[in-house]
Structures are given as structure tokens and as C-alpha cells.
Specification:
This is Glycoside hydrolase 43 family protein. This protein has about 500 residues and is an all-beta fold. The chain contains one helix and 38 strands. The longest helix has 4 residues.
Length: about 500
């Protein structure tokens, strides 16, 4: 978030894991979506009027389909690299699910109502889909990439003619860019398809998420042949792997490009690059092809500083748009009530020993800057083994919270699990929490290192060693709230979270 009084902005403009962004302008408003993988709700929808300050206004996907496939966490599956477009008075989002195929949803307004997911092309390994409606000819097209992990194929883009209503495809498809034939190019993916200056353009990244570059391809015919050029790369900057995003033009004719940078446990943060189109030539991104850290703001009306929400008082037991479950939710996990506070059921599970396997963890993105995360917790579960807490989740994880022991005493506990571990262990000795209440704190420092502490009424006290947050395969580390109990019969009680806050450190 950049102060509105300055004439410049500083990257990243979204300093958290808004992976694989795509952007569109409708009137004076800009909208952005991003990959959500296996989290629900999915397909986040962000709004801006200046391309610098963004707010989260909703989600386009209330459940992942097929529903049974996402009853348990699948952090590297689901929604990959969506494309956001506006056509015929409707918003459209296309994405590839690597295990099921290419889907689309559409809506008359950005806040919906969004249609149920429609399968446009079934198949394994189909990812990163993008449509184009050619306003000159009335024809529609679709391009997508391939995931070798499912199909045995990668580094190429396949094109189709598409029905104008986007309900299906009109041909079997053709490889329109084979990057195995381009010296030095590998892992070509994430295509975004445009028509500009009488040509078809594909803006697509290659080279991998941490070390790659942004490519541009152009052709007079959709099916090729295409010529290529690298238009954005790291060079001597500190912005590794700058690529995969979308082009947008303001009403005044300025061009901008939003892309991600992979930052380990922080995930894929979003940068804004200036962009120009020399007449008849190739697009120029950033500072002559290198990413900018600071730049003059877009020529748009000044806007108040804004960023996606993080804090939550959970009014009436409801949680804000910033939260997502780790799989398709079920009734009864969160209870509505008349006061403030998130009341979670202590869901019984045979996987209570490993938070990574649980669908009933409510998560939001780890901030990309040093921060202090705090929340109040009260445990009302009477079942021995009932527990609840605040977690930093990834391939390895750590949490702090409350648990009721076999004698009925509620204790402050601090636990962790290594990447290869199948069960968690104590990170510090348990301590009595006689009132069953605690305020929990996680301080993050550079390098996504996390320090845990607690307040049982006598001020905050540190516990355990510093923990280095880790990402999941394609997802940055997540903050999580949970309540659970060991497998068994009957209701295991609840836990209530209040006053969730994230502030500067």
C-alpha cells in the first residue's frame, strides 16, 4: 500500500500471495483475480481505481468441482492461473484444473451472481487457460498450457477455436507454440491472449517461477506461426523471476503490466510495471525490459490508501472475505450467533495429529512484511484432546493454542511438525491455562521467520524457538485458525476466536 500523497508507487503493490494475477478494466474500474488452488472460496476478486491500491471484494467460486475431489486439502490442485475478461456485458473467468480440465464461470457484475463452473474441455494436464473474443470477426479462441506432472507434456501452448458463448470448443486443437523448438526456452506456461495492432499476441512466462522471464509472441494468424521475444527479465535487479501476469490499458491509453515475483514462504507477490507499445513493434515492459522498484504512478485520479483486509472481529460469527478453508467446507464448522467472535466446532478427526490433512482450517495469506499477528482464544470443548489455535501452515507448520488434557485441565500448548513428519511434536512444555483463555501472538521478521508468544493475563511471554515458515508446493505459507478433537462420537465442544489483528512490527 503506497501513500496517496506521493507521486510514485513502490513494488510490490500486493505484498502477499496473490499468485498468477490477471487483470481487466471495465470503465474506470480495474479488477484482478489470482490462483486459489485448493482453497475455498476460490477465485478471489480484487478492485482498484489506480492499479496501486487494491481491495478484496469477493470470490467467484463458492465450491471446487468435482466436490468429492476437494473434500480434503489438495494444496497443489484446483484453480491454476485464471484469466479474467469482460465480454458481451459479462465478466468471464477461465482456469485450468490439472486433474480435470478447463472450466469457466461468468457473471453480469464482478460481485456476481457467478454461474456454476462449466467444463469447457476435459482432460489431464490442461492448465492456464485464456480466451479471446475477436471483436472484428466475431470469432472466439482459447489457448492453454500443459502440466507435465499429469500429461507428460509441457513447454508448449495449444490453441482452439471456441464457441462464442464459451460452452465448448470447435476443433481438436493445435500446438501453436512449441518452445522445445526455441533455443534456451523451457517451462513455457501461463499464456494471456490478446489482439493488438492487427496481430494475435500471447504474453507468456517461461523459465520457472523463481528464475524465469516474460515472453511475448505475435502472429498475423491465431494458429501461427509465432515469433517470440523476451520482454521482461531480472537482469541486475533484486526482482527474481519477474513474469506471468496481465496487460491492461487505462481509459487515457496508458499501458501497464501486473505480474508476480516468487518470494519463498511469502508466495507470489504482485508487481506493477509500466508498459509501452512502440508503433508496429514489441511491447516494452518496466525499465527497458527490467522490473522497476519505484515508478511514477499511473495517470489516474488519486485514491485513498487501501489493501485487502486482514483484521476481523467476526461479527455474528461470520468471517471476512480474506479467509478461506483448506478444502470444500461442511455445515457446522462455524456457528452464527448474536455476538462477536468466530465460534468453531472442535471437529473430530482421525487426522488430528497433522493440521496439513485437515479441511476445517480457516486460513489467510501470510503478510509479505514484518508483522504482529494476534488473536484471543477461548476453548469450550470438554472432550479430552479437544484443541484450538493459531497456526503458520506450510510443508512444515507450527501452532500455539489451548488443549484439554485427560484430567480435564486446559493447557497452553505449542506444537510443530517438520516437512517429512507425519505427526506433530511439542515445541515447548505445556502450561496450565486455568481460565481456558489466552491471547496468542506471532511476530514475523524478515525471511518469514516467526516468533510465538502468549498472554494468560500477565503479559506476553515467548515460547519455543524461532520458526522459519515454509511454503506448500505452489502456495505461500498461510495463517490458520482451527478447532478439532480426536476421532470419536458426539459433539466435542467449540472454540471462540475474537479480535484477530495483523499490524506492523
Amino acid at each position: 500500500m503506497t501513500p496517496e500523497t506521493t507521486d510514485t508507487y513502490t513494488n510490490p503493490v500486493l505484498n502477499a500471495d496473490w499468485s498468477d494475477p490477471d487483470v481487466v478494466r471495465v470503465g474506470d474500474d480495474f479488477y484482478l483475480t489470482a490462483s486459489s488452488f485448493g482453497r475455498v472460496p476460490g477465485l478471489p476478486l480484487l478492485h482498484s481505481r489506480d492499479l496501486v491500491n487494491w481491495t478484496l471484494v469477493g470470490h467467484a467460486l463458492s465450491r471446487l468441482e468435482p466436490a468429492d475431489a476437494f473434500a480434503a486439502p489438495r494444496h497443489d490442485c484446483g484453480v491454476w492461473a485464471p484469466s479474467l475478461r469482460h465480454h458481451a456485458g459479462r465478466f468471464w473467468i477461465f482456469w485450468g484444473d490439472p486433474d480435470h480440465g478447463i472450466f469457466q464461470v461468468n457473471a453480469p457484475e464482478i460481485r456476481g451472481p457467478w454461474t456454476a463452473p462449466h467444463l469447457v474441455k476435459a482432460g489431464k494436464g490442461l492448465i492456464d487457460a485464456c480466451p479471446l473474443w475477436d471483436e472484428e470477426t466475431g470469432e472466439a479462441y482459447l489457448v492453454h498450457a500443459w502440466a507435465r506432472s499429469r500429461s507428460g507434456v509441457k513447454n508448449r501452448l495449444t490453441g482452439h477455436r471456441m464457441r462464442p458463448d464459451a460452452t465448448g470448443l470447435l476443433d481438436e486443437g493445435k500446438v501453436i507454440v512449441d518452445a522445445d523448438r526455441i533455443p534456451g526456452w523451457f517451462t513455457l506456461e501461463g499464456p494471456k491472449l490478446y489482439k493488438h495492432d492487427g496481430r494475435f499476441w500471447i504474453l507468456a512466462p517461461a523459465g520457472g517461477v523463481e528464475t524465469g522471464w516474460q515472453g511475448a509472441f505475435r502472429s498475423r494468424d491465431f494458429f501461427g506461426p509465432y515469433e517470440e521475444r523476451v520482454v521482461l527479465e531480472q537482469r541486475d535487479t533484486e526482482v527474481n523471476g519477474p513474469h506471468q501476469g496481465g496487460w491492461v490499458r487505462t481509459a487515457a491509453g496508458e499501458d501497464w503490466f501486473l505480474h508476480f515475483q516468487q518470494r519463498g514462504a511469502y508466495g507470489r507477490v504482485v508487481h506493477l510495471q509500466p508498459m509501452t507499445w512502440p508503433e508496429g513493434g514489441w511491447p516494452v515492459l518496466g525499465d527497458d525490459g527490467a522490473p522497476v522498484t519505484e515508478h511514477a504512478r499511473p495517470g489516474l485520479p488519486p485514491q485513498p490508501p487501501a489493501a485487502p483486509a486482514t483484521d476481523d472481529d467476526f461479527p455474528g460469527g461470520r468471517f471476512g472475505r480474506q479467509w478461506s478453508w483448506t478444502a470444500n467446507p461442511r455445515d457446522g464448522w462455524a456457528t452464527r450467533h448474536s455476538g462477536d467472535g468466530l465460534r468453531l466446532a472442535c471437529v473430530r478427526s482421525a487426522d488430528a495429529h497433522d493440521l496439513r490433512r485437515l479441511p476445517n482450517v480457516l486460513t489467510q495469506r501470510l503478510p509479505g512484511v514484518p508483522s504482529v499477528v494476534e488473536v484471543d482464544l477461548r476453548l469450550d470443548g470438554e472432550e479430552p484432546g479437544a484443541r484450538a489455535g493459531l497456526a503458520v501452515l506450510g510443508d512444515a507448520y507450527r501452532w500455539i493454542g489451548l488443549q484439554r488434557d485427560a484430567e480435564g485441565t486446559v493447557r497452553l500448548v505449542h506444537r510443530f511438525a517438520e516437512t517429512v513428519a507425519e505427526a506433530e511434536r511439542d515445541a515447548d512444555r505445556p502450561r496450565p491455562a486455568p481460565e481456558g483463555r489466552v491471547r496468542l501472538r506471532i511476530e514475523t521478521v524478515p525471511g518469514a521467520r516467526c516468533r510465538f508468544s502468549y498472554d494468560l493475563g500477565e503479559g506476553f511471554r515467548p515460547t519455543g524457538r524461532e520458526f522459519a515458515a515454509t511454503p506448500w508446493r505452489w502456495v505461500g505459507a498461510l495463517l490458520g485458525l482451527f478447532a478439532l478433537a480426536p476421532a470419536g462420537e458426539g459433539h466435542a465442544g467449540t472454540a471462540t476466536f475474537t479480535r484477530f489483528r495483523i499490524g506492523p512490527r
